UniProtKB/TrEMBL annotation, chain A:
Keyword Transport (UniProt): yes
UniProt entry tagged with the keyword Transport: yes
Subcellular location: Cell membrane
Membrane topology: Multi-pass membrane protein
Main location as per UniProt: membrane
The protein, known as: ABC transporter permease
Annotated TM spans: 12-32, 69-89, 101-122, 128-147, 194-215, 227-247
GO biological process: transmembrane transport
Domain annotation ABC transmembrane type-1: ranges: 65-251
Lineage: Bacteria, Bacillati, Bacillota, Bacilli, Bacillales
Keywords, comma-separated and alphabetical: Cell membrane, Membrane, Transmembrane, Transmembrane helix, Transport
Amino acid sequence: MRNSLLKNRVAPAAVWFVAILIGWQCLSWLFLEVLELPLAQSKLPYLHELTRTLLDYADVLLTEGAVTFSNAALGFLFGAIAGILLAILMSISKWVEQLTFPYAVASQMIPILGLAPIVYGIVHDDQISRILIAAYITFFPVSLNMLRGLRSAEPSAVELMYSYAAKPWVIYWKLRLPAALPGLFSGLKIAAPLAVTGAILVELMGATQGIGVIMLRNLYYGPSHNYMFWLTVITGAFLGIISYLLISLFERILTPWQPEFRKTGGED
Amino acid sequence: MTTTQVYTPEIELDHVSMRYQTEKSEVLALEEVTVDIRKGEFVSLLGPSGCGKTTLLRIMADLIQPTNGEIKIAGGTAKEARLAQKYGIVFQSPVLYDWRKIKKNILLPLEMMGVSKEEREKRVDSLLGLVGLSDFKEKYPWQLSGGMQQRVAIARALAIEPEILLMDEPFSALDEFSRERLNEELLSIWSKVNNTVVFVTHSIPEAIFLSDRVFVLSPHPGRLSAVVEIPLPRPRTKELRNSKEFYDLISVIRDCFEGV
């Protein structure tokens, strides 16, 4: 079992990853040495140069990354809670849905790039505006997917509850909420990396700390700071991936019954 | 009224009619159905699709309300019976909650009634034993076959020890072999609980094999066309299916449909 897991999943993934790195390195060499493109290393830097810079500045990337991540996480948490609550309200009352849903959709049409300075102008604090933007981005996909999940309970499953003379809140607690978990998690998985991106965006527009701040700084310094700039971009992507993986891990722990996590097709 | 009543009525439907309003017209699903089911009796509601047999069961379960007619379930109204948990119900599909293990699925109605955790734990083993699924306590529903899932649904319906068991074509999604086996198992379960069972089916042999009486319904509009007594002795075993009496009863019931 363990061996086959190694063979079927880990090994191909590792081979693929190494292949990408080799491809990257070759392309980088091609740009620099063969095609002799101007600013070739800004287009695709050598991996060994990136590694060298990473070893020198790992602590900076880590501390700044942690600031961004914790702000994004906090915003994500608030946004998710708000999204879940609104979804529950909308599923209870058509009236609430009709009143709020068009505005929830419309709110998503506002470009974040324009919203961030407005929010900053109101709160005058880069931490709070990062948290607010991350929450704002999280809110919608969570709410939408949660609402779908709440409505996914089968009519017969609801009828069973009715036959037990169950109170409405009991039906929510024992049926609708558990049935909504897969939907909730797909919403959270969409939202988590977006929350990180949103936090970085706010940082780009002016902040004192965070991965976005050093990203912008190294971009200004020009080609001499190229490797560091690339590393900030990679760190940003890495934060997004971590956030996604964390949510996936929670999903696996909390909803092991979902079809995609089922081990065998069945017995008998 | 000089005759002594030899049985207690458990379910009484008096001139029950059900009309549905569709966009184009009004559909009469049930017309003036009058039914009397005795306490401890196993009856089937038999008929082709469109005869209103499921509608009739749902009326008994208070899942829908009839347009006309009187209903008495266990001495009260259908709603009172539902609120007091007088019946357990088994649907066509098992309707198990995916996120609950078998044990927790069976205990759901007891949880709803506020039975204490210790008491629930005590009951789960006998319920699992009753339907022969003791080894599957900690499994999830999808790890069980369709027939096993339906047995879980039966155990869940029996968890509250209801006076009445309502079953809406519970085995119709299963293959013929599983269905016959489950018929036998259902009878053996019933011999231990001895409550009143109302069983909806469109299979003539199934209705005969299980029931004390078969209520034959005809479609368009749904009407009670005959009540057939099944005098076959109990306990009933699979050999019974090959007996002459069994075949005779099949013809009797077939004839009920011929006239329609």
